[in-house]
Amino acid sequence: MIHEIVIQHVQPEKRDEYIKVFGEILTKANYAGSHGISFFTSIEDPSRVILMIDWDSVEAHTQIRGTPTYNAMREVTAKYQTAKSDGAHFLMHEVRR
Q1: Bridge-partner residues for 50, per DSSP?
Q2: pTM confidence score
Q3: Which residues contact 29 (CB under 8 A, 6 or more apart)?
Q4: In this structure, are residues 85 and 40 in contact, taking their beta carbons and an 8 Å threshold?
Q5: Side-chain half-sphere of 52: how many Cα atoms within 13 Å?
Q6: pLDDT value of residue 97
Q7: Which residues sit opposite 75 in a β-bridge?
Q8: How far apart are CA 51 and CA 14, in angstroms?
Q9: Distance between first and last Cα of the chain
Q10: CATH topology of domain 2-90
Q11: How far apart are CA 18 and CA 14, in angstroms?
């Protein structure tokens, strides 16, 4: 399992709407190889949102890029963003839970 973590910046007054819309799109898309979807909102900076999606593999994530569903998602969510997203794939190393 890998984790796609994306740092995003959105219009603060539209942050909750953004999370609702983006979450609904991701849930409805039901991408193969995708499991958990989580959003984290910054207390100190209301424009900052972190998205984390659990994937079976990097390949499971990259194979959806360019599909009509993916492109439509990008088009809808881009309207809320105020800066380019910064994301990557990570492995989790738990120390304590």
Answers
A1: 7, 40
A2: 0.91
A3: 64, 69, 70, 73
A4: no
A5: 12
A6: 81
A7: none
A8: 16
A9: 17
A10: Alpha-Beta Plaits (3.30.70)
A11: 6
Q: What is the DSSP string of 26-61?
A: HHHH--TTEEEEEEEE-SS-TTEEEEEEEES-HHHH
Which residue bears the tokens 């995708």? Answer: 34
For residue 83 the two structure tokens come to: 């800066």
Q: What CA dihedral angle connects 39, 8, 47 and 91, to 10 degrees?
A: 50
Q: How far apart are CA 94 and CA 1, in angstroms?
A: 13
Residue pointed to by tokens 């609904």: 24
* Token representation of residue 91: 């492995």
Nearest to 29 by CA among 72, 78, 88: 72
pLDDT, tens only, 40-71: 999 999 999 999 999 999 999 999 999 999 99
Residue type at 84 in one-letter notation: K
CA distances from 48 to 71, 72, 74 (A): 23, 22, 18
